[in-house]
Amino acid sequence: MKLAWGLIGCGDIARKRVAPALRDLTECDLVAVSRGRGELAESFAREFGAEKWYSNWQEILLDDEIDAVYIATPVDLHAAQTIAAAEAGKQVLCEKPLALTVDEGDRMLAACRANNVKLGVAYYRHFYPVVARIKEVIESGEIGTPVMAQINAFEWFNPAPDHSRAWLLNRQRAGGGPMFDFGCHRIEVLTNIFGPISEVKAMTANVLFAREVEDTAAALFRFERGTCGLLTVTHAAHEPQDTLQIFGLNRIRPPQIGTRL
Q1: pLDDT tens column, 125-168
Q2: Pairing mode, strands 91-94 and 68-71
Q3: Where in the chain is the domain with CATH 3.30.360.10?
Q4: Which of 32, 168, 176, 258 is 20–30 Å from 76 (CA)?
Q5: Residues of the chain with CATH 3.40.50.720
Q6: What per-residue confidence (pLDDT) applies to 250?
Q7: Are 99 and 128 in contact (CB under 8 A)?
């Protein structure tokens, strides 16, 4: 039995990853899409084989054929759209980050629980085989007690005002800079590997760009198991990096587990 999906938002991520997956997976049926401009919603729907298109996202929630919605809109819309979807009885898979604030996230969770629907966040790195392998190596004891994990996530991002992703520089819409945008993916990887976090210290800065959100940030974590982690992210470096290194207790050449994330 296929799950009938409605896609709310038809931006870059939806085009590159979400819509092709919902179209191609045998367990899924992409039934409808919504986009603010109706003519673009129609062309997007036709491109990916959806039967219906709407210019108003509320309309997609009134479609009884749809079982679940994927929310691929800017962060400031996630709470209202998730709560409305839950109240309409739709299962929800939401783009990251989940919400602008903890309060919004709590209200989204409460709405989904009250209406007995599932709420997921699109942290697809949770299912990376390489992350599963890293967990196996740590659990085997091969590197001893994991002492420190370090992640660098660097990418140049300086969009023109009319760029489709320029909203990421608007604090009210995006919530923050690279730590909100893609740092959250790496935090999920770290908690997947090492478990709950007990303490956080952080720094944000505008090293290069005078904009509403930070262009660079660093976070230091202590996990409940004792391991420490360091995550550094930036939109202000031309040299791209996406690395994870883990250092263990063993003195005989502790392995550095490096991978693109």
Answers
A1: 999 999 999 999 999 999 999 999 999 999 999 999 999 899 99
A2: parallel
A3: 125-248
A4: 32
A5: 3-122
A6: 81
A7: no
3-state secondary structure of 153: strand
Class of domain 3-122: alpha beta
Sheet holding 216-223, edge to edge: 197-205, 216-223, 228-234, 146-154, 241-248
**Beta bridge mates, 33:** 7, 53
The rounded distance, in Å, linking the Cα atoms of 223 and 225 is: 5
d(CA 93, CA 89): 13
* pTM (2 d.p.): 0.91
Query: pLDDT tens for residues 245-260?
Result: 999 988 544 444 455 5
Tell me how far apart the terminal alpha carbons of the chain are, to the nearest angstrom.
33
Query: What letter represents residue 156's amino acid?
Result: W
Chain position carrying tokens 């990376």: 128
Distance CA 177, CA 100 (A): 12
d(CA 57, CA 151): 37
Helices of type H across the chain: 12-13, 19-24, 38-48, 57-61, 78-87, 102-114, 129-140, 171-174, 178, 184-194
Statement: residue 195 has pLDDT above 50? yes
Strand pairing of 216-223 and 228-234?
antiparallel
